[in-house]
Structures are given as structure tokens and as C-alpha cells.
Design goal:
Rossmann fold; about 290 residues; ATP-binding; six-stranded mixed β-sheet; cell membrane; nucleotide-binding; about 35% helix; cell inner membrane; ABC_transporter-like_CS; alpha/beta; 12 strands
């Protein structure tokens, strides 16, 4: 299979090549090469502990790889200043606990810091276009009514929307989102899917980690699968995600349903058999279908 088809074609907004990350005696990422380009919405799937969050942190420069390199618009990431990186790449973590009490508006306004000479200007004399960016982001995530609320008092889903608004206010064209749908109710889940698709159509480069193969298959422009720290598939959603691949990835028995041009997955009748039965019949991790060459 060709897992590097996205490396040597069009210039990448953000990419890593042959990245390996080790912790203690474990290899968390093993020779991963991955790229995202302007206009792409890439969904990264894998079981808990597969290395998804670690890969995002490597791409952001929060973790230095033990081997390999990361490139932002063709330049080595480690040679670029943090402020310059933050103007180009925005990050939405899976968990966020600020050290100080902030209102929602202040959390979103923190996205403007990379564009300021000092953080004090953000609070003392915010520039009109900074205020406009913050208000536009609040409106985009439909949390304008929460602007003066204590961020720490929000529900998990409301916090997630505030962090997404902060990323939009930042003005970066590369978005790295670690399980952005976590805690969202169904309505806001659908709205965020639509928002991400629209951002990609507008030229943003977006990577999101998810455990929802339905969303990945029907909304993403590309899907990548991580298994045991290795990139085992990377390509067009319909060519990567089918019942066999999803079953192998999650060690569960899954069947697919294709309806009106969309693909959905559900538990097969023997998904929740006994552990002995599952060990005997579950697809192996090596049974992923090859990724397509683009």
C-alpha cells in the first residue's frame, strides 16, 4: 500500500515525515509520514492510545520527535518562532483547564495574542479588528450569549465551542482539533460538521481526531487510520473506510450501510459476543485495506 501519496504531490500546509516518538520503553509513533493541505478536512481515527493526540502535538511543535521532521509551509517547524507558528496553526485540545478565571469572551480573545506585541494590549486597549474577530468567532460558534459567563462554569460542550471560537479568532489557516465533537449535543455536533466542511471549502487545512467513522466517511475529504502508532491507511474516505477496515481498527464486528450516497456503520449482530468468541472471529489489525494512491 502507498501511505505516502500525500507527501510528494501538492505542497503541504503542515506535514511530518518519518516521525517517531518514544516514551520510556514504548514507541508511541513509529515512522509516521502525514500531510494536510489547504482545502482538506482530514479525519484521523484510531483506538484510544493509538497515537492520535501525540501526532497532533508533534505537528504543533509541543512534542519534539525522537526521529523525523515537521514542516510548516515547507520550512522546518523547530526553526520557526512560536509566535509565527501560532499565527498559522490553531489548536483545540481535548481537555482545557485555565489557571486563571476568565470569561468566555476573554478565552476567545486569547486567540488574538499571536498578533499583538504584548498581551496587555488585548485587555487595556483592544484594537477594533481584534474585537471584530472575537465577536465574529463568538457568533460563528453561537455562543455570543455566553460572552460574559465564567468559562469555568460552562458545561463540557459549551467549553468546547468556546475553544473552537478561540481557534477561529486566532485567524490561523491550519486547524488541529483533538476530538472537537466531545461533549457536544447532537444539534451542535451537526452544526460543527457543517462549519468544518465550509472552512475546508474556504481553503483551511484541518485535521481532527475522531471516533466517529460515519462523520469521517461522509464529511471529510480524507481519512487516515492510526493503529499502534503506525499510519496504516490514508486516502479517500470511501476507499479507506468500509466494514472490514472499521472492524479491524476497533476490534469489533461492524457492518456498513450505504444509503443515498452516504455510508454508515453499525454494530453487527455478534459484536458483543463473549471475549473468547471475539478473539476467535474479530479481524486482525493487519487486515486494513490498502490506501488509495492520489
Amino acid at each position: 500500500m502507498n501511505l505516502r501519496s500525500n507527501w510528494d504531490t501538492l505542497p503541504a500546509a503542515l506535514a511530518c515525515r518519518d516521525v517517531t516518538v518514544r516514551r520510556a520503553h514504548a514507541t508511541v509513533l513509529d515512522g509516521v509520514s502525514f500531510a494536510v493541505r489547504a482545502g482538506e478536512l482530514v479525519s484521523l481515527l484510531g483506538v484510544n492510545g493509538a497515537g492520535k493526540s501525540t501526532l497532533l502535538r508533534v505537528l504543533l511543535g509541543l512534542i519534539a520527535p525522537d526521529a523525523g521532521e515537521v514542516l510548516l509551509h515547507g520550512e522546518a517547524l523547530h526553526r520557526q518562532r512560536r509566535r509565527a507558528i501560532a499565527r498559522q496553526v490553531a489548536w483545540v485540545p481535548q481537555h482545557h483547564a485555565p489557571q486563571f478565571p476568565y470569561t468566555v469572551e476573554q478565552i476567545v480573545a486569547l486567540g488574538r495574542l499571536p498578533h499583538l506585541g504584548t498581551g496587555f494590549a488585548l485587555w487595556r486597549a483592544p484594537r477594533p479588528h481584534d474585537r471584530d474577530a472575537v465577536h465574529a468567532a463568538l457568533d460563528a460558534m453561537q455562543i455570543g450569549h455566553l460572552a460574559q459567563r465564567d468559562y469555568g462554569a460552562l458545561s463540557g460542550g459549551e467549553r468546547q465551542r468556546a475553544l473552537l471560537a478561540r481557534a477561529l479568532a486566532q485567524g490561523a489557516r491550519v486547524l488541529l482539533l483533538d476530538e472537537p465533537f466531545s461533549g457536544l449535543d447532537y444539534g451542535h455536533h451537526l452544526r460543527l460538521l457543517d462549519r468544518l466542511a465550509r472552512l475546508a471549502a474556504d481553503g483551511y487545512a484541518i485535521v481532527n481526531t475522531t471516533h466517529r467513522p460515519d462523520d469521517a466517511c461522509n464529511v471529510s475529504t480524507r481519512v487516515a487510520l492510526l493503529d499502534g502508532g503506525r499510519l496504516v491507511a490514508d486516502g479517500a474516505p470511501r476507499e479507506v473506510l468500509d466494514a472490514r477496515a472499521v472492524s479491524a481498527l476497533y476490534r469489533a464486528h461492524v457492518e456498513q450501510i450505504d444509503v443515498d450516497g452516504q455510508r454508515f456503520f453499525r454494530a453487527a449482530t455478534n459484536t458483543f459476543a463473549t471475549d473468547d468468541d471475539a478473539d476467535a472471529t474479530a479481524p486482525s489489525a493487519s487486515s486494513h485495506p490498502p490506501a488509495s494512491t492520489r
